[in-house]
Design goal:
By secondary structure, the chain is mostly helical. It is built from 10 helices and no strands.
């Protein structure tokens, strides 16, 4: 006897439970329709950026939970959450390779459809930025409450949960910097952001942000220790 065909059990739209849970009908309807596009590569452009927004949403959520764990005196779970957020940044960096398939002429043809839109307006990235700054503040408070400065922290064993969290924060900064470098080079390659080095150009703005650090004191204490100095080691 053939098994009885059982339909979806979840509420919502879609022919299957997978479609209903993932809301694929709505998700796949978020891109401009063939009759709306002025260049076929708008689909490539939208899918790349929309998926990046989803990964950034996850990163912001994990960073927010990591902050709560640090505030609660739990650096170990905070490290795990921060590692996941860092992986999300790595994934959005890797997928920028898709935009490398755009020719400058293709992107220029798409410009009217984009209006004045800019990646700087990304809500996901703004949430990640805000959470990153709050994480630095939470970690500083965590150490101050325990009367530990960064030089002392870095003298501990690498297995120490607070040490591991500090290193995870450095890795997060490193990944964000890599994303900015890749973004900058892509902007130049596609040729959409004005003359290289021109004052006020989008590419120039991107270049200035490459060396930005969410946690500069962590980088400084590592440099100081490499030189055998602990000057300026306090995060406070």
């Amino acid at each position: 006897m053939k098994p009885k065909n059982v339909g979806p059990v979840l509420p919502g739209e879609g022919d299957t439970d997978y479609a209903r849970y993932m809301r694929t009908d709505a998700l796949l309807d978020l891109q401009r329709r063939p009759g709306e596009v002025i260049h076929r590569d708008e689909l490539l452009f939208q899918v790349t950026h929309q998926s990046a927004e989803l990964w950034l949403k996850l990163a912001a959520a994990d960073l927010t939970e990591a902050i709560a764990r640090v505030d609660g005196g739990e650096p170990a779970p905070a490290e795990l959450l921060l590692t996941r957020a860092t992986l999300a940044v790595r994934l959005i960096t890797d997928q920028l390779d898709m935009l490398g398939h755009l020719r400058p002429a293709d992107f220029q043809a798409m410009q009217p459809a984009l209006g004045k839109g800019s990646g700087a307006e990304s809500p996901g990235w703004r949430q990640v930025q805000a959470a990153g700054r709050k994480l630095g503040q939470a970690f500083a408070t965590f150490l101050a409450d325990r009367e530990v400065n960064l030089a002392t922290l870095y003298s501990r064993e690498p297995s120490d949960p607070a040490y591991r969290l500090a290193e995870a924060m450095v890795e997060f900064d490193d990944r964000v910097s890599s994303w900015r470098v890749r973004h900058y080079k892509l902007a130049i390659r596609v040729g959409s952001h004005g003359v290289i080095g021109a004052a006020g150009s989008p590419s120039g703005m991107l270049a200035k942000l490459i060396d930005y650090r969410f946690f500069p004191d962590l980088w400084q204490v590592r440099a100081n220790l490499a030189l055998g100095s602990t000057v300026g080691a306090s995060l406070a």
